[in-house]
Write a structure and sequence with these properties.
The chain is of the alpha+beta class. It has a domain of 94 residues. It has eleven helices and eleven strands. Strands 1-2-3-4-5-7-6 form a seven-stranded mixed barrel. α8 packs antiparallel against α11 and α9 packs antiparallel against α11. The longest helix is centred in the last third of the chain and has 22 residues. The chain is globular, with a radius of gyration of 21 Å.
Length: 352
Amino acid sequence: MSLPVRTLRISDSTIETMEDNIWNDRYSSAWMKTNGRTSAVSVRYRGGHTREYPKRSYEVVREGQTFHYNAEYDDPSMIRNSLSFAFFPMIGVPAPRTKHVLLYLNDELLGLYLEIEGVEKSFFRRRKIGASSLFYAVNNKADFNRYLPDSNKLKSSLLAGYEHRFGGRQEKLKLTSFISGFHRRQGKELREFLNAKLDVDNYLRWLTGAVLTGNYDGFEQNYALYRNRKNGKLRIIPWDYEGTWGRNCYGKIVDSDLVSVGGYNSLTRKMLELRQFRAQYKSILRSALNGPFTEKKLMPLIEKKIAALAPYIRDDPNRRWSYHEFLGEPEVFRKYIRERRSIVKTELEGRK
């Protein structure tokens, strides 16, 4: 099966300007050919440390929709994001759609990329979800704490670490009120507050996904928060899951117990102090272990993705990892799933 092709056309002068400051987040004008149709787009580089890699990643706004074109340079399998965003809906959490594509820049093949749907208004429309607000957790200050990470200093704003995408000033006040509110409460009062303000089931399912996939960076950043218009409760969406399934965000193989089964961040800690939420979380974890988070369920999907990408990985001129390393990735996934299941099962047996 042939992969879809995307062709970016950017003028030489625009490329030169983008290269002069790779950290500039301003969009530039360009064109993109998709499915035989060429349209005007806005483009910029994206990513954190990955911007300095020779294979750039791009953010493209096409016909009012945002798409991310990730080089997945640190992932020898190129499927960790894709697999994670396929896994989350299995446990009841909406996640961005993904598609592997061949990306050209001015007729030069850049290689294999992962096209990721942006989390924005169209994301919610497509899923018939009413959203009153949207916030991106863009750095580790988005840890739901009142204090700065690794410091005893109070944050100047409880919205530090968040990028406000839509919703009026009242939505910013509501999120601030939520963060300050759960810190002031304990016991029954805390439970009632969280049940009223947060979609607890959604949050615990998201926590389950982050814990099982082993996303160390996914608890204090790399997520999106939105307020459901129907019931007014906050809900959460995963984002950036390249450093998962046994490798970190730089591609290094890590121990399967790197991520605590209790997760991280201040909100999670407060929630799991309450017996009702601990029991609910344990139930969701057990359900995942008995269902989608198994070798039987996941390995066919992994092997199918690897097989589909193999000829394109082999011919990609701009990959960090060898083709041999790529072919060995299914066993990295298998080992991680097997070990992670054992770790989580043991933790569940020991938790009250």
